[in-house]
Design a protein that fits this description.
Elements (H helix, E strand, L loop, with lengths): L4 H14 L5 H12 L3 H4 L1 H24 L1 H21 L3 H26 L7 H29 L7 H17 L15 H5 L5 H31 L4 H4 L1 H20 L5 H19 L5 H15 L2 H12 L4 H10 L3 H16 L3 H20 L4
Length: about 375
């Protein structure tokens, strides 16, 4: 069966919607100002998105076996659209938190179903490059998020107009996919239960790799959330402009993913992991001390560049550790994305305790230390 571009494009566009969850970084800064939140309370905003990866990833995979992949993607789109309209209808803290909860639920379902759906429209050697293209589309969305928020705040008069913009883009994605016929292979009945999947954590190797996913996502969401706040605190930037730091982070992360794709074909993955996480940790340490906007953005970019391939390396190591349980391991690793829910509140609490964003850097640094230890725990074979 030939790969059909008309079927591939609407599926790839779904990855743009997947990138919306990263807007919680700059949204955190806007909501903190609008509602007068402490750093501790504001830290729970990313949690409203990422906690669902812990709660729903495995159940969503089981539901997908019953509904099918395309229907699961469409259900995620509906949930996202509803969530994005709530703050536009009534703008208050409760509707904002509910909107991010809906975004997290929709995004969890989307991440569980969109990659498998892509395998139904792309065959053979083109699959790997198409999956990579999907991640690039997601990264572009992450880069655009702060600019869309700044456009909404500056040109439209309020950052909350970001929500209907996201709803409109999600609607376009849903309609495009709805009008595209995709033949799905029937999935075999899988007897795995939620309990049996989480039971794999009894394997020490799977456990420390699961925690690796947990902490690298914590670093990712943490730096995304921290970067605009650093520019506001140390360089006196307005929130509308400070979002540039998050875009720098995601731009460098995208570049790092491209470099990693080529480098990992020639270099040992574990050695690459050690060097990259070591350099990223050093950049984070320097970030603790610098004040200028340019050096801060440079160091934030270095962290993004050298952390870009860590998720895929840890994920692949887990899949290779238990190839007989590949489906279960995949679902389990996705639940590790819930690190994005746990780390930001800890950052907020530490920031309130220390009285500056240095507290957030300390928490991210602890995550980095675990990942550095993880890189030396892995075998190079």
């Amino acid at each position: 069966m030939k790969n059909n571009v008309s079927k591939i494009l609407p599926v790839l566009f779904g990855f743009f919607v997947m990138g919306f969850c990263d807007v919680v970084g700059i949204a955190n800064s806007y909501a903190k100002i609008d509602f007068g939140l402490s750093e501790t309370v504001a830290g729970f905003i990313p949690s409203m998105v990422f906690i669902w990866f812990l709660l729903l990833s495995v159940p969503a995979a089981m539901l997908m076996n019953r509904l099918g992949r395309k229907k699961m993607v469409q259900l995620s789109n509906i949930i996202t659209i509803v969530g994005m309209l709530l703050p536009f209808i009534s703008y208050n803290l409760a509707t904002c938190l509910l909107a991010f909860a809906f975004l997290g639920i929709g995004n969890t379902m989307l991440q569980v179903s969109l990659n498998p759906l892509l395998t139904n429209v792309v065959k053979g050697d083109a699959l790997t490059s198409s999956l990579t293209a999907g991640q690039v589309v997601k990264a572009v969305s992450s880069i655009c998020g702060p600019f869309i928020a700044a456009f909404a705040a500056g040109t439209l008069g309020n950052w909350k107009y970001l929500f209907p913009i996201f709803a409109l883009v999600t609607l376009i994605s849903a309609v495009w996919l709805m009008t595209t016929h995709i033949e799905e292979q029937k999935s075999e009945n899988n007897a795995a239960s939620v309990g049996s999947v989480f039971g794999l954590l009894k394997d020490k190797t799977i456990l420390f790799l699961f925690l690796g996913i947990f902490f690298i996502v914590g670093v990712d969401v943490g730096v995304n959330t921290l970067s605009p706040k650093l520019l506001m605190e140390r360089a006196g930037w307005a929130v509308e402009n400070a979002g540039l730091a998050a875009s720098v982070y995601f731009f460098c992360k995208t570049a790092g993913a491209f470099i990693g794709a080529f480098a990992l074909a020639k270099v040992n993955a574990v050695k690459y992991f050690r060097w990259n996480i070591g350099i990223a940790a050093l950049a984070l340490l320097l970030l603790f001390f610098v004040d200028g906007a340019v050096p801060m953005m440079l160091l934030i970019g270095v962290v993004g560049l050298f952390c870009a391939s860590v998720f895929s390396i840890v994920y692949a190591a887990a899949m290779q550790a238990r190839p007989d349980k590949a489906n279960e391991i995949s679902g389990l690793m996705i639940t590790g994305v819930s690190g994005g829910a746990v780390i930001p509140p800890l950052m907020g609490s530490m920031t309130d305790m220390m009285g500056s964003q240095a507290g957030s850097i300390v928490i991210i640094g602890i995550c980095m230390l675990y990942l550095l230890w993880c890189s030396f725990r892995l075998s190079e074979s």
